[in-house]
Write a structure and sequence with these properties.
Radius of gyration: 25 Å
Largest sheet: none
Structural class: mainly alpha
Number of helices: 12
Low-confidence stretches: none
Oligomer: single chain
Strand content: under 5%
Helix content: over 70%
Length: about 260
């Protein structure tokens, strides 16, 4: 680490020490009270990354770094761990999981690196947790489904050819249709879940991030829907005043933009 980075890190740690001693709000914070703020900051970073806002990414990374330092301070006060323990822990983990850099293992492609990484993670963790034990329970369901698929594939539980996944998707669509016809809401929920899980696995097999793909569609829909509303306003109406056919005409016009 160069002096500039070291000085900035030390400055942040010292400011955290001061705030913990002198600021009434900072003094009363706990791991539990910070948890939701940390989740919010993470999503704000995701928004900045999605928008490719480099200034925003820098700011949100700073906010997340503050949380790392804050949690480390709380850990030190509890006599459990400190910032050095956190930093050294991740350094040791990185060295252990990169034997192709720090050891004598060969990995010439990103895929080989990822396979070795997952194998080393499983070997290091408690065997009782199993292959899927490292998937955080609190992950959003879409992200969790993707990680579950990755973990299962890392031990060979996957389709032999990526094209084979579509047979599973069609199977799940048929089961959704069956429960719709049977009007069984509880089973229908389960079948929709199975269908979504199959589609997430299809994304994984084709190298698509399902979260990014869905967010792309969300942004596209919002833009077009807002355009529809604006067009209706310019015509002296609201969307509620229009027939479905009239709204469809506005929608098709927006798709051409």
């Amino acid at each position: 680490m160069n002096n500039k980075n070291a000085d900035a890190t030390l400055r942040l740690i010292e400011i955290m020490d001061t705030l913990r001693e002198q600021c009434p709000w900072d003094r009363e914070q706990t791991f539990e009270s910070l948890r939701n703020n940390t989740i919010e900051e993470t999503y704000e970073l995701v928004d900045a990354i999605t928008d490719r806002n480099m200034e925003g990414i820098k700011e949100e990374l700073g906010d997340l770094l503050l949380h790392v330092v804050f949690y480390s301070k709380l850990g030190a006060e509890a006599g459990a761990f400190n910032y050095a323990d956190v930093a050294n822990g991740v350094c040791d983990k990185l060295i252990y999981r990169h034997p192709h850099v720090y050891g004598n293992i060969h990995a010439d492609t990103p895929e080989e690196v990822k396979h070795n990484w997952e194998a080393l993670k499983l070997r290091k963790k408690n065997r009782k947790s199993g292959t899927l034990g490292g998937v955080p329970r609190s992950l959003p369901a879409l992200v969790k489904a993707f990680r579950i698929g990755e973990k299962a594939a890392s031990v060979g539980f996957d389709w032999e050819k990526k094209e084979d996944v579509w047979a599973k998707v069609r199977e799940e669509v048929a089961e959704v249709d069956t429960e719709i016809a049977a009007k069984n809401h509880d089973l229908l929920e389960g079948e929709f879940g199975d269908l979504l899980f199959a589609l997430v696995n299809a994304c994984r097999l084709y190298g698509i991030d399902p979260e990014a793909a869905l967010e792309r569609t969300n942004k596209k829909f919002i833009s077009r829907f807002n355009g529809m509303e604006q067009a209706a306003v310019e015509a002296g109406k609201t969307l509620g005043d229009l027939t479905l056919d009239e709204m469809e005409a506005l929608w098709q016009a927006q798709k051409k933009h």
